[in-house]
């Protein structure tokens, strides 16, 4: 067969695209992943009954663990009452109930809540909302968005455009317009060995320089994960970072968006934004833990002032068919009631502190642990070949894959990643369900220790 015109199959024409195993169920990608048939609490079980601790709550989703009867009953009951009613032509109580609970937990400045079906969609909504607001209020040139490298904001084309993953640019350049990127405020892997505080300051300076270069009247928003998710392995910016970012955004009228798809409910407060009150992001985006794996759900939160003004000027164009599905909303109401009544944010703080101490002990004893970082029950462990130089293991070792595979032998379901082909390091997330107990944390860390010991043996 003759080659398709315009084809170039040289290796550098094929970026790695992060090496995800996706859902096509080809023979090559179904063999080695465990097939999960059942879940209970923090455990997942495969077809022969092997239990795995869900170390990363899936992808930081299953906040309540598996099989929460209250959530399941609420969804079933709602389904019998009202299955679906379209958001553009009707309203229903479960939608109002989720919005009221989220707004109450988020506090002043986030009175209005628009639901989506997931994180990417909610990030798109946030940017469309801000663009519609800017357009309606005479700021018509504001179209440019600034975000960080590395970062992750989703899998739709717009959210890939703001995601800081250069490999995307190799594939999609010409198809989408990529946002302006500035270096993320990394605290561990800092350039030239500067301190975490200095590196955070560099990000702020880069933000201001980029705004000035683009023209302040053209910049719509700066989007950032307040604590990194898988993009940076739970990076926590140091020093005055959020106060400085707020100051720069205020100086040029740029909206600040916190992508809290992964961080909401995780860090010990409902929003990670609550940990830095000086940040006051204009818009906050949630997903993952909001539906806790029982139902696909995301949300964008904005101040009543902006939403009500835009409603009066032009109205909005934001929603998708499945937004605020009543069964989803009923599930989320029960998830949020469980979160509050069982004080799971408090448990995230208490168990997060205990987990951190245990992981740091483990890090001291393992030659492979370069860093342990995060907040609450959103932690990550960075794997290095050399603690002094922070050098990563050779690429052919496939450290994230190998750790995940060895973890399975010790009854762990791990979520391990590298970003940008390992240029920003390699890590695995430690973000178990918020219902985890101290004994379960200890059992999980013991198994992580044995997994790392096996990996060390394998490398020597
Ligand atoms: N933003 C962040 C910070 C995320 O971690 C994710 C998912 O991992 C997304 C956005 C995308 O969310 P979703 O996969 O629900 O579209």
Automatic annotation (TrEMBL):
Keyword Transferase: yes
InterPro entries reported for this sequence: Aminotrans_3, Aminotrans_3_PPA_site, PyrdxlP-dep_Trfase, PyrdxlP-dep_Trfase_major, PyrdxlP-dep_Trfase_small
Regions crossing the membrane: none
GO molecular function, one term: transaminase activity
Keywords from the named record: Aminotransferase, Pyridoxal phosphate, Transferase
Gene3D superfamilies: Aspartate Aminotransferase, domain 1, Type I PLP-dependent aspartate aminotransferase-like (Major domain)
SUPFAM superfamilies, alphabetized: PLP-dependent transferases
Family of this protein: Belongs to the class-III pyridoxal-phosphate-dependent aminotransferase family.
Protein name: Aminotransferase class III-fold pyridoxal phosphate-dependent enzyme
């Amino acid at each position: 067969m003759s080659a398709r015109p315009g084809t170039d199959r040289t290796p550098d024409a094929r970026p790695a695209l992060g090496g995800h195993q996706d859902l096509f169920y080809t023979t090559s990608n179904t063999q080695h992943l465990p097939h999960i048939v059942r879940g209970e609490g923090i455990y997942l079980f495969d077809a022969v009954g092997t239990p795995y601790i869900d170390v990363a709550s899936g992808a930081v989703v299953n906040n309540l663990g598996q099989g929460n009867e209250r959530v399941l009953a609420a969804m079933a009951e709602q389904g019998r009452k009202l299955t679906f009613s379209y958001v553009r032509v009707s309203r229903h109580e479960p939608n109002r109930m989720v919005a009221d609970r989220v707004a109450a937990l988020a506090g002043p400045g986030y009175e209005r809540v628009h639901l989506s079906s997931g994180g990417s969609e909610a990030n798109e909504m946030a940017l469309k909302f801000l663009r519609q607001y800017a357009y309606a209020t005479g700021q018509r040139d504001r179209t440019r968005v600034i975000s960080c490298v590395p970062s992750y904001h989703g899998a739709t084309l717009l959210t890939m455009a703001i995601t800081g993953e250069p490999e995307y640019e190799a594939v999609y350049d010409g198809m989408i317009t990529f946002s302006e990127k500035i270096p993320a405020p990394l605290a561990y892997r800092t350039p030239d060995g500067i301190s975490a505080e200095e590196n955070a300051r560099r990000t702020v300076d880069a933000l201001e320089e980029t705004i000035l270069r683009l023209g302040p009247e053209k910049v719509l928003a700066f989007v950032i994960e307040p604590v990194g998710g898988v993009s940076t392995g739970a990076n926590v910016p140091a020093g005055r970072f959020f106060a400085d970012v707020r100051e720069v955004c205020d100086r040029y009228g740029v909206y600040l968006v916190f992508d809290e798809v992964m961080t909401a409910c995780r860090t010990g407060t409902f929003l990670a934004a609550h940990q830095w009150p000086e940040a006051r992001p204009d818009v906050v985006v949630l997903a993952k833990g909001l539906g806790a794996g029982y139902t696909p759900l995301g949300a964008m939160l904005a101040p009543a002032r902006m939403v009500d003004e835009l409603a009066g000027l032009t109205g909005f164009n934001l929603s998708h068919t499945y937004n605020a599905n009543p069964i989803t909303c009923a599930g989320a109401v029960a998830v949020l009631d469980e979160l509050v009544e069982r004080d799971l944010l408090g448990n995230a703080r208490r168990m997060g502190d205990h987990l951190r101490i245990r992981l740091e002990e483990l890090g001291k004893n393992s030659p492979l642990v370069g860093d342990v970082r995060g907040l609450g029950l959103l932690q990550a462990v960075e794997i290095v070949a050399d603690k002094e130089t922070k050098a990563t293991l050779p690429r052919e070792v496939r450290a994230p894959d190998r750790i995940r595979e060895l973890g399975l032998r010790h009854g762990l379901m791990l979520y391990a990643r590298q970003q940008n082909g390992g240029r920003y390091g390699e890590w695995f997330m430690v973000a178990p369900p918020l219902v985890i107990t101290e004994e379960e944390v200890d059992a999980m860390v013991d198994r992580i220790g044995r997994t790392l010991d096996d990996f060390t043996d394998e490398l020597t």
